[in-house]
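User: Show me an example of a complex going from sequences to structure tokens.

Assistant: Sure. Here are the input components:
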Amino acid sequence: MNFNDYVFYVLAAILLFAGLRVITSRNPVLAALHLVLAFFTAAGIWLLLEAEFLAIALVLVYVGAVMVLFLFVVMMLDINLDKLREGFWEALPIALPVGILMTLEMVMILGSKHFGVDRVAAPPPHPAGYSNTAELGRQLYTDYLLPFELASVVLLVAIVAAIALTLRDRKDSKFIDPAEQVKVKRADRIRMVSMPADVEIPAAAETEGKDKA
Amino acid sequence: MIAFMQNLLGPAWPVVWTLIKIIAIVAPIMGAVAYLTLAERKVIGFMQVRIGPNRVGYFGLLQPIADGLKLLMKEIIIPSAANKTLFLLGPVLAIAPALAAWAVVPFDVDMILADIDAGLLYILAMTSVAVYGVIIAGWASNSKYAFLGSLRSAAQIVSYEIAMGFALVGVLMCAGSLNLGKIVVAQAGGFWQWYWLPLFPLFIVYFISAVAETNRAPFDVAEGESEIVAGFHVEYSGMAFAVFFLAEYANMILVCMLAAIMFLGGWQPLLDVAPFNMIPGFLWLIIKVAFLLFFFLWFRATFPRYRYDQIMRLGWKVFIPITLVWIIVVGGLMQTPLAYLFH
């Protein structure tokens, strides 16, 4: 075993542990945090495969953005896990065979017969100036341009749809528009009023307080 | 000396050598953080016509050390309803990414710990991970104010990260590389060749986003003293609090370092002529970083705090459209004879 193998086994052990804790943890926030750990560790394993762009993108997108929003929601919900698990024993007789069947199917497909280490040719060593990121970009924008653009259009539609579905203007809410607010100039709010100080002459009392601005 | 150590340690030498390099980076950062706090108090004092700290040491120069010692001696109080593990993990997660990001920062030609191709992405990933320290600290404290502060901070960081990322897309379009060293080399040739000029809107967006990303005034609603006491770190005391403090300042130095590398030519001299290019590269970098850091302090002394919804509007409705438009403009102009502007 060389150094890379040790790193792989350490990362794999952490990944498995984190994955287990995601489903066994009693606290949903802890479960989500273990999912973060799982993503991070998976990124480490991808780095070992020299897929540095994908690894960093995984951290950037999933750890840095998706899981933050996820944690947001989970932290604000008051989830009682005991209540969620109430029907556990009733569902078990059906759930267990289904689960075992799914596992068996996955083992049949992903087993070493088809996806084993000896099945996949070792990647050829890269020349010194090889950049994984540049290569990925080249592939995406030449060979896979159409699927890539289609995927981005689908995502764009999904974004617009998500906003359109959730954005409701309540008629009775006194909502404020910060864009309007920041446009306000001093002249819109303040009126300069000249108040002469020499008010001792009674004849001048009429002009007092008159707006000279 | 190095050859002797190499013989002595054998196969363990690369690890030891890397550790030495890491210490050589982290120790000066910690020193810089300590003296940045002093500089902040002095600069803001000057701007408010005060003297600032001047009791400990000549000109208050030992003040950061006295502060550090004081915080070290204090007890770390853990609230009884807090989640103990996460409560202690919070500060660690806040400072670890702030320091880890320095691994790919090029200080000079070949003066870099890890010269990786996706350096820019790595830094973006590390700064986006930093938000977990704040979220975890806020949640684990089991306190309303801490939780509100952490939610504000997380939403703010996630929002401004997008504008920041898009601003850096412009840089990578110009330089044609994600490698920070190559980005600096692409800006060779003096003041007018640096990317702040062709990418001026992106530079401004990046810098303001950096202020928001580090939760500094005027975007410091995460710790708004007048509304939510001190935000996410209200329950922290002693060294646990100090670690958050260190992380904030380390992040400030980091984003200024990035701004200097991306837009102000990194280690390149101001002009590539005799008196300027005799100053070593890393000194130029330090000068640029100090210049940008001064703005952070200046902002804090000048601007009142933004209201939260206005921060969100600025990020989503102003900065992101600006960056998107300018990226398209840059991409379009690069196909025309004007491409030399964006070399």
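The lines above are the inputs; the final block is the predicted structure for all two components together. DSSP finds ten helices and no strands in chain A.
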